[in-house]
Amino acid sequence: MVLEQLIAITEKEKKARKEICIRCCMAAGCMSSRGAEIKESIEKAVSEKGLQNRIEVRRVGCMGSCGQGPMVGIEPAGLLYQHVTPENAASIVEGLSGGSAEAELGDPKHPFFSRQKLIVCANSGRIDPERIEDSIEAGGYLTLQHVVSELQPSQVIDAVLKSGLRGRGGAGYPTGLKWGTVAKSPGTRKFVVCNGDEGDPGAFMDRSVLESDPHRVLEGMAIAGYAVGADQAFIYVRAEYPLAVSRLQTAIRQAKHHGLLGNGIFESTFNFNVELRIGAGAFVCGEETALMASIEGRRGQPHPRPPFPAESGLWGFPTLINNVETYANIVPIVKKGPDWFASLGTEKSKGTKVFSLTGKVRNNGLIEVPIGITIREIVEDLGGGAPDGAKVKAVQTGGPSGGCIPVEHFDTPVDYESLVGLGSIMGSGGMVVMDEHTNMVDVARFYMQFCMEESCGKCIPCRAGTVQMYELLTKIVERRGTRNDLEQLEELCDLVKHTSLCGLGQTAPNPVLSTLRYFRNEYLELLNKEVQESGSSGVQEQKT
Amino acid sequence: MSKPKLATVWLDGCSGCHMSALDMDERWIELASLVDLVYGPLVDTKEFPENVDIVLVEGAVSSEEDLEKIQKIRKQTKTLVSLGDCAVTSNVPSMRNRFPVPVVENRSYRETAQLNQQVPREVVPRLLPKARPVHEFVKVDVFVPGCPPSADTIYYVLTELLAGRMPDLTNLTRFGA
Amino acid sequence: MAKTLTINGQHVSAEDDQTLLEAALDAGIKIPTLCRLEGLSEVGACRLCLVEIAGSAKLQPACVTKVVEGMEVQTDTERLRKYRLMILELLFAERNHICAVCVANGHCELQTLAQQHGMSHVRFSYLYPQADVDASHDRFVIDHNRCILCTRCVRVCDEIEGAHTWDVMGRGTNSRVITDLNEPWGDSQTCTSCGKCVQVCPTGALFEKGKSVAEMAKRREFLPYLTLMRQQPR
What we know:
CATH superfamily of the largest domain in chain A: NADH-ubiquinone oxidoreductase 51kDa subunit
CATH topology of the largest domain in chain A: Rossmann fold
Structural class of chain C: alpha+beta
Largest interface: A-C, 32 and 36 residues
CATH topology of the largest domain in chain C: Alpha-Beta Plaits
Strand order of the largest sheet of chain A: 2-1-3-4-5
Strand order of the largest sheet of chain C: 2-1-5-3-4
Order of helices and strands of chain C: EEHEEEHHEEHEEHEH
Number of helices of chain C: 6
Oligomer: heterotrimer
Largest sheet of chain C: 5 strands, mixed
Distance between the termini of chain A: 71 Å
Helix content of chain A: 40-55%
CATH class of the largest domain in chain C: Alpha Beta
Low-confidence stretches of chain C: none
CATH architecture of the largest domain in chain C: 2-Layer Sandwich
Radius of gyration of chain A: 25 Å
């Protein structure tokens, strides 16, 4: 592959485009509401009307408003149909040929769409994720070509560093810094790993990105590989994402076929091969050291850091691990320049963040917003508040490692530091909205159950501590808890947070701590008021 | 001024802790001048008295009767001592906890019985789902692990408590000692 | 190059690539451990050896933390003691540890640590899990009721004996050490019956048949010996 060929594909694709494009969402959400049937029935209607020359029916990825799906979009009219069924799908074609469409029309000007800033998701819902030509037409692999033939690895790292991009997996470590460390770490081989083991309850950002624009991620990884000096990469995706897996497989095959992955990319000396690894369902494998163990074929368990993967990762070689969304940000950063990227977001947190907005909120789905937007804007403007006139009470960010943020703090800008200040974390982007009917102790218990079941069992505080915390929370939820139980719960939070081996354990108490911080009353109301019988001994308390 | 009242109680245990207490031998004579032994397997009182100063509790809480007893004892006692591993950890009695109560009853009263193979429904108290340590039900003031704690340990605990001090058992006894 | 650091205010010198734990041991400062055993790889799992290091917000496991010049370490603060006691209590509540009838009574590292940390009782609710005993091996028994998942058996079998009969199955508190692919120990095709796992086990989870209560003292002399012999140049 050379630049001319890329351009030729683009030209050919442009020529083949038709007057009207009907975009059918075929990401997992809409697919599960009969999205495939809808596309078939639209295709059938188009051919029945003999409109094949005017209308293209395109499979696309996620359009965002998953809660209103299945979605169908019309270009260039800019129409958006929602809650489409295979039965009324044909009428959409009717509507394009003078008749009237029965399908429900959505509002593409709604703040849910207009307030978004699409960088990671720019192609999402627009291109066919299973056709590399679509991706190339949208500019795909041009950046890789530029990087490989024009830039030095250090220039790429500088760009990423200057952009201020921080890891989108949750912790927010400066991406450029990590790349620099891996590049400087001595090693006869280096590896690039993409963490797609998205496991937080209510989170589906990475899934959507992989299902909607896999080439963007592959290209980002290849640029990373070039920058750090790696020739082999692994994408680790959980088995629960079969569609993402199959689209990635397709994308890797296509990219290899076109010489965009493999040896001698763009006739350079840069080799880059990507292999897919499928997770077996353990949440802890999203933790980087456990993920690497799993890739190596060992039991998915974390090990103490240091050594960090950047020095000693896969099979002891320097390894760069970034999240799906992080890699998806690379192409635009290199293409449009770090200054452009750094102009978005806040002082310390640049760019946009993709969130999956779920729970008690009218418009749920996938959103990409500039960092620094307030929680209120997300929940009320984009999300439209809670359904059925209920009042929103809190939002949980960061999944089981995050915390609940109460409505009083909704004017806080969403960035890494502010959320930590509120006792939560940015996390990978799960955002679960809770309304006034939600019992916060029950929420804490739900997340604790999750952590308990997903604890790998290696270190004692997490393995046994989460069980005890879960038991105590159950006792409190069932109104059997006493003040002593609450005290013990807090002691355990402190222990597990400060003594666990990996991030899963260290953050497992967060949902409890944050609900205790903001909704302590709900705990106190559930406590059993009959004080435990206690005798007053004449001597001081025994030790321990 | 009357002497402090001492009681001892035998819940689900083997009576070994009481035996160990008896091993204090002649020190009981000295203790008799310091306390009134008002209740226990060694005394003929039927009802647990009011205003007991110190109670030594042997055994885990295993049956409905144990639970009733320990709650009453807690109410009527100043200093409650969990004496021995069964009271402190539930120890051997807890070994039945992995089996549901009907299985335990069946094993005890039918499968291994020579005569009269039936589960008693009267007189014998009903088992709780699990045998558990005393402090999971009521507040315990002093824990004396050991299986059984030695006579010396028990003597030390009693004399310290009578002197108004909290016994420090760190180097005297442990689980399974 | 040697390094100098302070542990509990005491000046300590250490070899270049020593861990904090090794440096402390050399200086006669004891830090409690359970999963660690000299001669086996470190896993940093039991968290008992966590120490405070000046300038670091996080507690660090002494067994895997390398010494750094000028490091100021505290190994025995009130906070650390509190955490250690809680971790030990969590272990006692997690499985069915009945010291009174255990073969390792009096020879058990868990029991000893509990006593050293002044554990008079366990404040957490006992979980009383279903845990089995596998006595299918001719000479040895595994009693999962007493297992604390330190994985010493797994490591010694893999790293010293080279058989890798043992491994861990399952997740969280349901994890179990297993032989081969969770087959009865007695049916294991890989077990060499060397008994190393039994000797390194810190509790009475692994023991020799024929040993009664309090009779199972562990013999670990082989481990430093083998380590030493294998270091010898050929």
